Amino acid sequence: MQFAPEAQILILNGVILAVAYLGIYPSLEEKTLNRIMTIDVVLSALALTVAGALFWGTGTRFNMLFFHSNWAVFTIITLFVMEVPIFLNFARKHGINLFDDPD
């Protein structure tokens, strides 16, 4: 079964986020914003690497509802949009301070 290019990227992002928020982040002893952001950079690079392996040089255009983009922009934007609500819920649940208040 062949999925549309957009679906392939969305599934990839979903799997990466599921592994991160159901496996990696909950298993961290110290759950801090900096630690999660560091791991998130690596996972974002993984998403871009896999998407690049699938679509680099193919000329495939991805529909972003109001405009079309390439695979890299589509991967970054959709990963961000998918992750924000999951991250905010995780941070609230685990008491992660999103704003460093020195006072």
Summarize the helices and strands and which ones pair or pack.
Blueprint: H1 5-24, H2 33-55, E1 62-63, E2 68-69, H3 71-94
Helix pairs in contact: 1-2, 1-3, 2-3
For the structure shown, list the relevant keywords.
mainly alpha; about 65% helix; about 5% strand
Summarize the structure.
By secondary structure, the chain is mainly alpha-helical.
Explain this structure to me?
- Helices cover 65% and strands 4% of the residues.
- The protein is mostly helical and 103 residues long.
**Secondary-structure element pattern, one letter each:** HHEEH
Number of helices: 3
> What order do the strands of the largest sheet run in, or round the barrel if closed?
1-2
**What's the oligomerization state?**
single chain
**Morphology call:** elongated
Task: Give the termini separation.
Answer: 56 Å
List low-pLDDT spans.
Answer: none
Largest sheet: 2 strands, antiparallel
Approximate helicity band: 55-70%
Rounded radius of gyration (Å): 16 Å
Look at the helices and sheets and give the structural class.
Answer: mainly alpha
**Secondary structure: number of strands:** 2
